[in-house]
Amino acid sequence: MHTETETASFPFDRTDALAPPSEYELLRGTTPTARITLYNGTPAWLLTRYEDVKLALTDHRFSADARNPGFPFVSAALRASVGHKHIPFLRLDPPEHDRLRRMLSREFIVKRIDALRPAIEAIVDRFIDQLLAAGRPADLISNFALPIPSAVIAELLGVPYSDHEYFQERGRRMLSSEYTLEQSAHAVVELREYLGALAERKRAQPGDDVLSRLVIERELTGELDREDLKSSALLLLVAGHETTANMIGLGVYTLLRHPEQHSLLRADGQLIKGAVEELLRFLSVVHTGVPRVALEDVPLEDTIIRRGEGVIASIPAANWDPSTFPEPQTFDIRREPNRHLAFGFGIHQCLGQPLARKELEIALTRLFDRVPTLELAGEHLFGPEKSVYGLHQLQVTW
Ligand code: HEM
């Protein structure tokens, strides 16, 4: 049993660029349900074992509904982004969650995403051209990793890419702990207004995109109201952006730092799928894990998590649990099985995962095909830490 005094401030920093915070290893062994303190002094439980994390994500006694008192927010920015009275289905429970998610699920089935391949390839090629045109050395993050997911989601959703600075900047304010609650809340209001105006234009002139289909097939039929439509569109715009961008940047960095794994991949392009899965596990960019709140008392390990208490299920800790992943610190693109939790688990498991996988496969394959001499150069800037871990700058040459 643990006492209230044994609390650690969460989130922990990463001291090694390519490993989760070292605290997890210790806690997993000694205190699998650890008491932590969040940014505003609120206590919560931290889960670090693979099986416990999976349980928190599948057991209906743990809720994802951010309106529950006790819901653990890891930063003011995240609190603000769901503080609005209309919250995205990521932070709702069934039946509301299921109803809203179902309206989008067919947009993300593998077959549909496979059909996007030529569009994604064209986008990736465009940013490889931009990177090469920037001259040596160039920053891979601003020229390649960041703009790709932004352009892809803009294309899919039907948002003009020319507005990317507007939605990227506000998306950052919604996620980053650098901003105050007011700044983040204001970003939510602005993006909702922007998406509302865009939905109005789609209503008058629908296109072949997700937002148009939501307006025509769901809103006009009375299934979906405008506020929920804006929440779902906002979730898509923000959820897949920073996560995928950080995976592309860190993915390139990790491969360049592991030349022998990189050579294996270069010699056999079929290994790309395994390489993407291992990058997802190894990097676990959802740095602050996923938040849940207990709806009733739940006995777990040597503790009872009381009704109303917040739980952080740590994805990075679960993905490095040696009881599930032998030698978790070894980056092995042929790791098999690799049942990582990088996309979460259970009913909230990432809706965009087929898209994220496709983007990563195409971006990494084409970059190394077209620029085979790519290597690291100069400074690499990690952090400051946000809820999603990543590189702010990655200088490369070729
Ligand atoms: C490598 C990139 C990505 C990672 C690591 C990632 C990770 C995650 C995780 C861990 C969750 C579950 C959160 C929870 O249980 O509370 C999630 C949910 C979600 N993700 Fe992703 N994601 C990625 C890319 C994307 C993309 C590209 C999109 C869409 C364009 C997207 C859309 C969503 C949505 C809509 C949800 C909410 C699902 C629900 O609540 O039912 N994600 N993602």
UniProtKB/TrEMBL annotation:
InterPro entries: Cyt_P450, Cyt_P450_B, Cyt_P450_CS, Cyt_P450_sf. Belongs to the cytochrome P450 family. Keywords: Heme, Iron, Metal-binding, Monooxygenase, Oxidoreductase. CDD domains: CYP105-like. Pfam families: p450. It comes from Rhodococcus jostii. This is Cytochrome P450.
